[in-house]
């Protein structure tokens, strides 16, 4: 291949086959299935002096450490050190209180790390940790979330959303409404449980800290470590090249990375710290349990007159993280009177955090279940009820939608699902012990986009290198970004080499908020477009280092949008309920989405059905139990925390309507990582009601609740 000829193609001489919207396989697929993709604590492979760290979690529900006896642990073979609150390296106060570990004697919740054993092998570290004796002065712990808790408060902000929003007079409109539904739902604590537990490898070379961390954003980890260890960002390198899932729990840095860096500094050796799954429940975040009450008032023709949604969530004693689980009504339906309120209670519990579709997942479960109850009360088809209340502008802000197409999703879904053959009467489809039902729910998730930068280089060998600190947490981000680059450069996909997952690369934001592809992709698009222009103006062979163009979308992506921007969708479920065992099984699940331009049909489908599978788990099997006596959570492995397995997910299908939205970035893409979990639990719950004729309002719908 002659370099100049290839780069002439980039300038637009011959357009190759389109690469956006097609379904190329993951670029790193072969490495992943052959085990050569390196995850955080596999990379680099065990250097000869590598040490291993094992944390010691608090065993009381709340209290104070009165002493840490390390003598037995230090006497064991291979122990290098035991860090305690008395002698661990001091760190500065950062932005997140969960990261200031081993700095004082307070125990805000069970599972909080109170010591760290470091040894020459994993086995020795575990044995040393078990030999550490910690004494406590325990205090009574309050871990029970109740709506009538005397300490409940309405925060100004629930994760950046107004704590309370009021339009009109919803209570008055409700009192006067001809048709009224008042209902309540509960959602238990839920845990993210990615396949790859949180883990870090840390090494100091003089004053330079290198960390391989299983994270959704290397730059975020770097800024947190820089603050804590009082270093300039350039003194830290964070690598997150391959990440085995996160679902939000790796969206913010976690204490293990701080402990690994502390231990490496203290021992002068590289240190690996891979959290055992049984320690994760209390230190990597979880979705707060939420209690919901809703009141819907409507006219007899189904026109909504009022919506009230009040949600109560819990947070910890050390940090206010308030799940924004009442936001859906601000987006979904036209209604003149609306009141949405978030409440929170500080308890002796681990700090809750981000979990796939934070806010939207619980709020859509509650709202879409209540809409189904209203449809039943009205004797109206639940799809018709939603179509009847389609808004022209976003109800809360009054802004026009950049695009919506919920109607199209509901209609297309109904057609594909065979909704029109449905007998609306509940509890009538019986075969032997089995009752069958179908349900529908709408889905939504906001379009988020963050500033990013990227660089694109035309190499003298005829290929291209694109660099951006994006993170591929299993989504296919690496592949999609290579597609974006190939498209902007006008070259085939295999001409692009993509480098992601390191702070050595141009700044990229988190893989979070379903914003990754749109954010990094915008910067990649801009860098490649700029490179194309540079190449067009370039004469003769390329210099040795090639030609490079850089981009930064700070200004463009940061502009305040004049439109309400959300993805929408419709979920359909068919369930069978065994009236003898109480087991609910999903037979069919369908999602139809309007999510802007779909850039990779293969990985997009995976994201959609992955979200729906997680929604199925939220509906039927997943829950964590706060232990009222011991504190923390009772479920601490995948044998007790039931994520859906293959046999639980028989027939699951995802489609999308063609949507062109010119009010997004240059890719026209909305996020797709989270919308699948919003609406799915309500669709399943509504199907269970249709099957049984009985409304169950406390997730998950396990056999004990069905019987
Ligand atoms: Mo996701 S919960 O926005 O990482």
Task: Provide an overview of this structure.
This protein is of the alpha+beta class. Among the domains are: 144 residues, 2-Layer Sandwich (Aldehyde Oxidoreductase, domain 4); 190 residues, Aldehyde oxidase/xanthine dehydrogenase, molybdopterin binding domain (Aldehyde Oxidoreductase, domain 4), CATH 3.30.365. Helices cover 25% and strands 24% of the residues. It is built from 17 helices and 26 strands. The strands form 6 sheets. Strands 3-5-1-14-11-12-13 form a 7-stranded mixed beta sheet, sandwiched between helices. α12 packs parallel to α13. The longest helix is centred in the last third of the chain and has 21 residues. It is globular and about 75 Å long. The chain starts with a helix and ends with a helix. The N terminus is likely disordered. It comes from Streptomyces solincola. This is Xanthine dehydrogenase. Keywords: Molybdenum, Oxidoreductase. GO terms for molecular function: iron ion binding; oxidoreductase activity. InterPro entries: Ald_Oxase/Xan_DH_a/b, Ald_Oxase/Xan_DH_a/b_sf, Ald_Oxase/xanthine_DH-like, AldOxase/xan_DH_MoCoBD1, AldOxase/xan_DH_MoCoBD2, AldOxase/xan_DH_Mopterin-bd_sf.
Structural class: alpha+beta
- The CATH C-level name of one domain is Alpha Beta
Q: Residue-averaged pLDDT, rounded?
A: 96
> From the structure provided, what is the oligomeric state, counting identical versus distinct chains?
single chain
Largest sheet: 7 strands, mixed
- End-to-end separation in angstroms reads 69 Å
Largest beta sheet: strand ordering: 3-5-1-14-11-12-13
CATH superfamily heading of one domain: Aldehyde oxidase/xanthine dehydrogenase, molybdopterin binding domain
| Second-tier CATH architecture of one domain | 2-Layer Sandwich
Percentage of β-strand residues: 15-25%
Shape descriptor: globular
Please mark out the parts with pLDDT under 50 across 5 or more consecutive residues, or reply none: 1-6, 8-12
The set of bound ligands, ions and cofactors reads: dioxothiomolybdenum(VI) ion
* Count of helical regions: 17
Helix content: 25-40%
Please name the CATH topology of one domain: Aldehyde Oxidoreductase, domain 4
Q: How many E-type strands?
A: 26
Radius of gyration, CA atoms, in whole angstroms: 26 Å
């Amino acid at each position: 291949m002659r370099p100049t000829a290839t780069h002439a193609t980039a300038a637009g001489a011959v357009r190759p086959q389109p690469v956006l919207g097609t379904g190329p396989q993951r670029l790193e697929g072969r490495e992943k299935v052959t085990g050569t993709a390196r995850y955080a604590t596999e990379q680099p492979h065990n250097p000869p002096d590598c040490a291993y760290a094992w944390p010691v979690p608090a065993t009381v529900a709340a209290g104070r450490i009165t002493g840490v006896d390390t003598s037995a642990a230090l006497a064991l073979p291979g122990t290098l050190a035991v860090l305690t609150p008395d002698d661990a390296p001091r760190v500065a106060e950062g932005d997140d209180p969960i990261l200031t570990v081993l700095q004082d004697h307070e125990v805000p919740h069970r599972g909080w790390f109170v010591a760290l054993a470091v040894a020459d092998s994993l086995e020795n570290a575990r044995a040393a940790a078990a030999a550490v004796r910690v004494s406590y002065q325990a205090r009574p712990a309050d871990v029970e979330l109740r709506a009538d808790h005397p300490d409940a408060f309405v925060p100004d902000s629930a994760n950046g959303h107004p704590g309370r929003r009021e339009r009109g007079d919803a209570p008055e409109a409700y009192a006067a409404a001809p048709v009224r539904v008042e209902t309540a739902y509960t959602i238990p604590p839920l845990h993210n449980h990615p396949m790859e537990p949180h883990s870090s490898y840390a090494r100091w070379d003089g004053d330079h800290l290198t960390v391989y961390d299983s994270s959704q954003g290397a730059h975020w980890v770097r800024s947190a470590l820089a603050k804590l260890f009082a270093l300039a960002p350039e003194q830290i390198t964070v690598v997150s090249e391959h990440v085995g899932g996160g679902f939000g729990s790796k969206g913010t840095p976690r204490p293990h990375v701080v402990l690994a860096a502390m231990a490496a500094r203290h021992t002068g050796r590289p240190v690996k710290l891979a959290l055992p799954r049984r320690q994760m429940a209390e230190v990597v975040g979880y979705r707060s349990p939420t209690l919901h009450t809703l009141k819907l008032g409507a006219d007899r023709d189904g026109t909504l007159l009022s919506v009230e949604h009040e949600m109560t969530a819990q947070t910890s004693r050390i940090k206010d993280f308030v799940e924004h689980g009442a936001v859906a009504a601000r987006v979904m339906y036209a209604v003149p009177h609306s009141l949405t309120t978030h409440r929170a209670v500080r308890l002796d519990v681990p700090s809750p955090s981000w979990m796939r579709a934070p806010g939207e997942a619980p709020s859509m479960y509650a709202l879409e279940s209540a809409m189904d109850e209203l449809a039943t009360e009205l004797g109206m088809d639940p799809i018709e009820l939603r179509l009847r209340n389609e808004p022209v502008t976003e109800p809360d802000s009054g802004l026009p939608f950049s695009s919506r197409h919920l109607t199209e999703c509901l209609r297309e879904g109904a057609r594909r699902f065979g909704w029109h053959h449905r007998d609306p009467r509940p509890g009538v489809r019986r075969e032997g012990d089995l009752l069958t039902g179908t349900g529908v729910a709408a889905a939504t998730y906001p379009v988020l986009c963050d500033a990013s930068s990227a660089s694109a280089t035309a190499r003298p060998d005829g290929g291209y290198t694109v660099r951006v600190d994006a993170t591929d947490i299993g989504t296919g981000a690496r592949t999609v970004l290579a597609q974006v680059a190939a498209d902007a450069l006008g070259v085939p996909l295999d001409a692009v080499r993509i480098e992601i997952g390191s702070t050595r690369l141009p700044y990229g934001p988190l893989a979070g908020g379903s914003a990754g592809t749109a954010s990094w992709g915008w910067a990649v698009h801009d860098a490649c477009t700029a490179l194309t222009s540079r190449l067009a103006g370039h004469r003769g062979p390329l210099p040795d280092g090639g030609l490079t163009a850089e981009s930064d979308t700070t200004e463009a992506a940061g502009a305040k949008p004049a439109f309400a921007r959300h993805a929408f969708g419709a979920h359909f479920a068919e369930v069978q309920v065994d009236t003898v065992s109480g087991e609910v099984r999903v037979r069919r699940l369908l999602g139809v989405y309007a999510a802007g331009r779909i850039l990779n049909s293969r990985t997009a489908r995976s994201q959609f059905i992955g979200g729906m599978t997680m929604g199925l788990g939220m509906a039927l099997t997943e829950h964590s139990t706060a232990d009222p006596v011991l504190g923390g959570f009772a479920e601490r492995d995948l044998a007790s925390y039931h994520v859906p397995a293959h046999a639980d997910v028989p027939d699951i299908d995802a489609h999308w309507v063609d949507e062109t939205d010119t009010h997004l970035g240059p890719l026209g893409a909305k996020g797709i990582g989270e919308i699948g979990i919003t609406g799915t639990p309500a669709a399943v719950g509504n199907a269970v009601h249709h099957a049984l004729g009985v409304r169950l309002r406390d997730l998950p719908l396990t056999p004990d609740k069905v019987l």
